[in-house]
Amino acid sequence: MYPSLTSFSGDLFAEFDTLQRQLEQLMGLRGWPSSIRAAGRGAFPSVNVGTTEDAVEIYAIERGAPHPNARSVLYLDAYTGDVLRFTPYAQSSLGHKAYFWTLSWHTGLVGGLFGPALQVSGALALLFLAWSGVTSFVRRSLRKARRT
After folding, report:
1. Are 8 and 80 in contact (CB under 8 A)?
2. Cβ atoms within 10 A of the Cβ of 49, count?
3. Cα 76 from Cα 23, distance rounded (Å)
4. Which of 22-26, 35-39, 74-78, 142-146 shows the lowest per-residue confidence on average (mean pLDDT)?
5. Residues 35 and 20 sit within 8 Å (Cβ to Cβ)
6. Does the predicted TM-score (pTM) go above 0.85?
7. Which candidate, 52, 51, 48, places its Cα nearest to that of 39?
8. Residues sharing a CB contact under 8 Å with residue 61, sequence separation 6 or more, in sequence order
9. Are residues 89 and 139 in the same domain?
10. For 21-46, how does the pLDDT look when each residue is reduced to its tens digit (9 = 90+)?
């Protein structure tokens, strides 16, 4: 059994409030109405909490982020709650930024109406190319069959 489970204070909401205060302090969100407990779809900040054996990973999307997946990541020690690392999106690596920009484009979350329209036109173009390729092959095969 994990030591953090045996030494748990028993007040889950107090633990969430502690996480919320740490996140607000690191991201400079003092005064913004936010709550990790109440974070639902569309809430600000967008928060997700995941755990491993040694660390708790929390990511949040800052207000005014360049795209819906611009994640600032906070790593906490799973046993003590101490901050292990905090990486704001603006300071994250180029690969991290490129990955999440690509994810936002792929899921149609950027570009307003143009982004999803571009994706739909690309999908329709792919269907047209497949159809034209198959029909061209079938016509060519039928011509060869008639000649013989």
Report:
1. no
2. 15
3. 10
4. 35-39
5. yes
6. no
7. 48
8. 45, 46, 68, 69, 70, 71, 72
9. no
10. 777 777 665 554 444 444 444 444 55
Structural domain harbouring 139: 111-148
* Nearest alpha carbon to residue 59 among 37, 89, 14, 28: 89
Q: Which of 13, 107, 27, 19 is nearest to 64 (CA)?
A: 27
Q: What are 76's two structure tokens?
A: 């906490």
Tokens read off for 125? 């173009």
Whether residues 17 and 37 share a domain: the answer is yes
Cross-strand partners of 59: 48, 73
How many domains are contained in the chain?
2
Residue range 41-65, pLDDT digits in tens: 444 455 556 656 678 888 888 888 8
Helix (H, G, I), strand (E, B) or coil at 122: helix
